[in-house]
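User: Show me a protein chain along with its predicted structure.
Assistant: Here is one chain, sequence first, then structure tokens.
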Amino acid sequence: MTKKLFTLAALPLSLTLVACAPVETKTTLTTPNAGKVRTAGPGDTVMSFQSKRALPNAFGRADLFGRTTNAGRTTVRYIGIRGSKAVFERSDIIVDSNATTMSETPLIIPHTTNTNIEGSIGNVPVSGTATSTSYQVIGPRGSSQYASAQRPIQLTIGTGQSVTVEGKTLRVLRVAPSSVSYVIE
């Protein structure tokens, strides 16, 4: 009997653990107009990426509700030209955080009060019960983050050449003295 009860109790927990995905970091391109020909001058941002990491739950898996925390960003800027090639600079900022589902979830404590009333109206006895519930919300304890900048990397790309950054391709179409035409694929 106890073995059967243990199996019934463990089944929902094991299903919950299996349903949660592993903690992963996802990076998305935030620069608009991917796929369209664009022109940049010196100092302009050509590509910008935002990284988010899934909040780990108490079992070390990804949050069931899809909550995330900042994991950093990558920026590619056009610097200028060197000879007939365009020079870009890639800058990465990595954010380490101790955020978890437990540190970012508030605690809600219900308080239930029962009020009993007894008495009589004339010679008739009466009684009643009133129940009221209120909630105390204790905010999440929060987390801390540490950002570190990586040493910038220079990328030199000629007309018709390309480079892949975070899974997206930056293709240089034309290099002019004061600008570059490019497309993000």
